[in-house]
Amino acid sequence: MFSYRVFRKPNMSGPCGAQRCAICPYMMTADYFTDPSGRKYSVRNNVDCKSSNVVYAVNCRRYRKYVYLGETGGTLFQRHLLNLSRIRTQHSDHFYTDGHSMDDFQIMGLEKLNGSDEYRKTIEQLWKAKLRTYRPYGINVQE
Question: How does pLDDT run across 66-113, given as a tens digit for each residue?
């Protein structure tokens, strides 16, 4: 009798690995993330630079915490290429002030979703509250 196990790669956030991807150096490689109280959450589905329909967090290496949470229907690559090209956005401004640089900038994919824009935006709001990225703790603005 022949028996085998199927080894499946865990759900992870990480770089896509493309040779000239400008976003890969900023992608965090992890299979979980934590909220400010230390509670662990698993990354849902594999998320990399080329993933679309994603909820993501921006981590500040200097502050050692998530400072911004967002969502995109496009790819993480498309979304964050704007930040790296110095176009001023809410969270890119954080990395150009108070002695920060883009070396402090990290992206963590939290969830790759299947569903509507409305569903993705709802999940984004949930994570903003859990990870406390609203001002004054982070740089998200409560609407």
Answer: 778 999 999 999 988 776 665 455 555 555 567 766 677 889 999 999
Is the Cα dihedral 35, 40, 45, 47 positive or negative? Answer: positive
* Distance between CA atoms of residues 60 and 54, nearest Å: 19
The residue extents of the domains of the chain are 24-131
For residues 57-80, one letter each, b for 16 or more C-beta atoms within 10 angstroms of the residue's C-beta and e for the rest, the string is: bbbbebeebbbbbbbbeebbbebb
- Answer yes or no: pTM beyond 0.70: yes
**Longest Cα pair distance anywhere in the chain, in angstroms?**
65
Q: Using the predicted structure, report yes or no on whether residue 1 has a pLDDT greater than 70.
A: no
Within the chain, where are the H helices? Answer: 76-84, 90-94, 117-131
**Residues 134, 142: contact at Cβ < 8 Å?**
yes
pLDDT in tens, 33-63: 998 888 999 999 999 999 999 999 988 777 6
Which residues make beta-bridge pairs with 105? 60
